[in-house]
Structure formats: structure tokens, C-alpha cells
């Protein structure tokens, strides 16, 4: 569809969200945004806003999904157009080999993260890894095929994920205050941007998961090995895990290295990103969070569920 908007986000507090039969209108303070409903696929609402009931009806009538998040980017619910509620693959999902599916997700995400770290490190004269870190990650990758219990998988996954986020901090300016992945409320702009980007990726993946007939609540890596987190659906997290680095992390760290985050945020009880920063971030996410790639990942997962094979 020409001029299609993959998603529209409303973040923060105080926006007034309305829709007629043909147009979505968002008023935020003195600013106003309008979108033809024919061009929108998804509305993401995070924080505290006013949403008219009639707007929901018009959105659903135009096959537009609505996802709700708290101000930190944690999911709180969603409304899908008719036809998204059935989960014909639920029984098959319950019977998949959990260890094999979880292993596949961990291997894919670890390879994605290590490729990105190696790419970042190749352009630095002083390197990126501290002594022994690369060996730890490489050993963990080789060790995976020999792990036979879910707690062992959880240990390696948590270790490598935590190391990855700490290593990333070395390419961000120190004044940004980013050290590692934190829980909300986020104390720095990099964590806040990760949260926003993951919310966009989560919502986009959730729509595709529902459309494929998968039960979003039934996962293997998440739900069995790792808790999915508050209000997060395990199947959605399983599929989006390997996509987080190329679709979100790369965008955030590119902006950090380009100096675009500096002085574009405020720290109070949480980190608040400026409108200018959010506009540029969303523009880049539109190019990075690719719906076709997500749909292919979901289709591959659904095919593996049907066959009972590796995800």
C-alpha cells in the first residue's frame, strides 16, 4: 500500500485520540497529527491518554490493531480486528519438544548478538571486549549443544544476554549513563529507547503471531526456560528474541554513536525522551522493524510447530 504507516505510536501522557470513519487524529498539547485510516496497520498507545470508544470502533472496522503499554513499554493488553482470535495451533504448540525449540531460540539470538558485537568491535582500535569476554561467549556458544536440562539453558542464556548489554555500553558516550539493561523505571535514555523499540517490535510480532493462528501465550524459551515478564506473551517473545538486535539494538546504538541522544532527554523519576528524539527514533524504526521479515519468522515458527520439528 502506497504511503502506508506500519504503526502510529502515542507515548507519555495527556494525548487526545479520536477517529472518524476515515481519519485518526491525535492531539498532544498544541500539536496535532492526522492519518488516513486506510494507511494505518497498527496503533500503539503507551502511558495515560484519552481514547474515544468511537475511535476504537473505527480502527477495528478498518482492520487496525490497537496495542496498549504502560509508560515504560510493558504490555498491558491489545484489541485485534475480527478474525485474529482463533488459535488452531494451540494443541500442536503444547506438544512441541520444548528443549529443542528453546535451544533453537537461544542459538539464533546468541549468533545475532555476537555478529553485532564483532561488527562494532572491528571498527575500534582499542577493541570492544575486555580480556576473556570473547572466550566466555564463544565457550558458551559451543557448550549449548551439550546442555540437556532447561535450567542449564537458562543459565547460559542469561549469562550471554547480560554480557551482551554490558559490552554494548562501551560504544555509548559515558554521559548517557548507560551501563547495562535495567528494569523500569529506566534511569538512562538508552534503556528507555530499548524499551520503546522492543514495544514496537513486540506489538508488530504479536499481530503476526495471532494472524498465523498461534497461541501467543505458549512458548518454549520463554515460559519454560525464562519467565516472559509482566503481561508479555511467551510465543511472541520466543519469535522476537533473535530479531531484537538487528531491528532495535542497532538503531539505538547507531543513534548513540552519532550523538543524536545527547541533551535530548530529561531525568526525573524516569528518563523522558524529547519529541525530537522520538520522532527520529520512530522514523528509523519504521525502516528497521520490517513486517515482512517478522511475518517470515512467524511463518517459519508456525511450520515448525505443525511438523513438531526445530523452530
From TrEMBL:
<comment type="function">
    <text>CRISPR (clustered regularly interspaced short palindromic repeat), is an adaptive immune system that provides protection against mobile genetic elements (viruses, transposable elements and conjugative plasmids). CRISPR clusters contain spacers, sequences complementary to antecedent mobile elements, and target invading nucleic acids. CRISPR clusters are transcribed and processed into CRISPR RNA (crRNA). Acts as a dsDNA endonuclease. Involved in the integration of spacer DNA into the CRISPR cassette.</text>
</comment>
<keyword id="KW-0378">Hydrolase</keyword>
<dbReference type="InterPro" id="IPR002729">
    <property type="entry name" value="CRISPR-assoc_Cas1"/>
</dbReference>
<comment type="subunit">
    <text>Homodimer, forms a heterotetramer with a Cas2 homodimer.</text>
</comment>
<feature type="binding site">
    <location>
        <position position="241"/>
    </location>
    <ligand>
        <name>Mn(2+)</name>
    </ligand>
</feature>
<keyword id="KW-0540">Nuclease</keyword>
<dbReference type="Pfam" id="PF01867">
    <property type="entry name" value="Cas_Cas1"/>
</dbReference>
<dbReference type="InterPro" id="IPR042206">
    <property type="entry name" value="CRISPR-assoc_Cas1_C"/>
</dbReference>
<keyword id="KW-0238">DNA-binding</keyword>
<dbReference type="InterPro" id="IPR042211">
    <property type="entry name" value="CRISPR-assoc_Cas1_N"/>
</dbReference>
<keyword id="KW-0464">Manganese</keyword>
<keyword id="KW-0460">Magnesium</keyword>
<keyword id="KW-0479">Metal-binding</keyword>
<dbReference type="GO" id="GO:0004519">
    <property type="term" value="F:endonuclease activity"/>
</dbReference>
<keyword id="KW-0255">Endonuclease</keyword>
<comment type="similarity">
    <text>Belongs to the CRISPR-associated endonuclease Cas1 family.</text>
</comment>
<protein>
    <recommendedName>
        <fullName>CRISPR-associated endonuclease Cas1</fullName>
        <ecNumber>3.1.-.-</ecNumber>
    </recommendedName>
</protein>
<keyword id="KW-0051">Antiviral defense</keyword>
<dbReference type="InterPro" id="IPR050646">
    <property type="entry name" value="Cas1"/>
</dbReference>
